Give the backbone structure.
Amino acid sequence: MDKAEPSPHPHARAAVASLAAHVRLAVYSGTALYGLLFVAGATAVYLSYQGSRLDLGNVTQAVWSTAHGRFLRVSTPAGHELVRLGSHVDPFLVLLVPLWWIWPSPLMLLVVQVVAVSAGALPVYWLGRKHLHSEAAAAGFALVYLLAPATQYTALTNSGPHAVSFATPLILFAIWFLDNDRLVPFAIVAAVAATTKEEIPIAIGCLGIWYALARGRRRAGATIFALGLAVTLVNFLVVIPHFSPSGANVFAGRYAAVGGTPGGMVRTLVTHPGAYVDTIASWHKLKYLGFLFLPFVGLWLLEPLLVLGAVPDLVVNLLSSKPEQTSIVYQYGAGIVPFLTAAAILGAARYGRSPGRLAAVALATAAVLVYFQTPLRRSIRDLPETRGTNAVHAAKAHALGLIPAGVPVSATNKLAGYLSTRRIVYVFPHVGRAEWMILEHDDPTYGTQAADTVALAKIESSPHWLSVYSAEGVEVLRKRPPGG
C-alpha cells in the first residue's frame, strides 16, 4: 500500500492562505477602484454635455416615463409617442425605476451601468480560481476582463446608458451559477439578463448547448436552449412588430444587403450566399473583431461550445450596414464579451499548463489594446469642460436652466439628451408643438447642418418665436403666446 502524502507544513498552509487573502483583497479593491475611475469618467462626459438624444435621452425618457406610470414611453425625433419595445425589447429598464425615485438623474443611469459592468470581474475571478487553481491567474483574467476595450466601452459608451450593458455582468454570473450546477440562481439571473435586449435570450440559450454536451446535463441543457430560442423568436416575431408603429422591425433596413427580414435573410443565404461574404468582409469589421477577440489570445478556441453564446450578437453586428455596430466604441460587444471571457478561462484550464503565464500574456495584450482604445481618454479630454470657468459650458448650463420642466421642447441632438424628463422632446429641425427651443449651432453630431441652418433662419425670423438667450453658439427661443 502506498504511503500517504505528507500533509503540508502548517506554516506553508498559512502562507498560501495569506497569499490567497491578499490576492482576493487586490481583486475586490481593484474592481472597486476601476468602478470609481469609470464613474468619474462617466461624470465628466455627462457634465461636459457630451451626451445625446440617442441614447442618453431615449433611455432616460423611458425610465422617467415608467416612473410616472407610462410604461417605457418615449418620443421620436418628430415628437411621436411610442413604447420603446417597438425598437428594442429591453424591459430591464423597469428595474431601474426604484433607483430613479431615489436619484432622479440621467447620471444615475450612467453610474449604475459602470458599477454593474465592473462587478462582472467577480464571477470572472471565481471561475478562474475554480478552474485554474491559481489565485494569481484568476486575478489576471479578472483584470483582462476589465481592461478589454469592449468591456470599457460597455461600461462607458460614447452615447449613454443601455440596458444591454447590464447583460455583460449578468451573463457572467449566470455562467458561474450554471458551472456550479446551481440551476435556481442561474434561472433567476438568466431571466433578468434576457430582458436586456431582444437577442440576448438565445445567447443565454446557447449556454444550454454547452451545459448539455460539455457537462452531460442533456435535459436541463435542452430546456435552457429551447426557452432561450422561444423567447428570442417571440421578441422578434411578436413583441417588436406589435409595438412598432410600422408593424415591422425598425432596424430591418440595416440588413437589406442580406434580405432585411428573417425570411428574406434565409432566402438570400440559399440563393445568394456571397452577399453574406460581401457584407462581412471589410477592414472595418476585421478591426472590430480584433479588438473583441485579441485580449483573450485565442484561448477561447479551446472551449468552443461556450463561445456559441457570442454568435447571436456577432451575427447581428456583422451583418448590419450600420458602422457603429462594428465599432468597439459602442455597446455592441456587451453580449459577446462574457462568453469570450469565460471560454478563455476554461480554455486555459483545458490547455493545462502555466495558467499564470497565459493570464500574463492575455493581460499584456489587453494593456496594449488599451493604448489604442479606451473611453477614459475622452473623459480626460472633456474634464476641463465641466468647470464653471468654461464659457461654452456655462452658456449651455444657463440655457438648459431656462427651459421649464415638462413643456414640449425642440433641441439639437446633444442638448436634447439633457431635456428628456418630459413627454415630448423634438430633435430640431422638428418643431411640432414645442413651446421652447434650445439650439447648439455647432453640434458636431447633428447631421444635415446645411438644411438645419435654413430651418434655424426661418425660426429666428418668425414672428411666432422670441429669442430669450444667445451666447457662445447656444440659443434659447420661446414661442410667443397668441396675440403676444
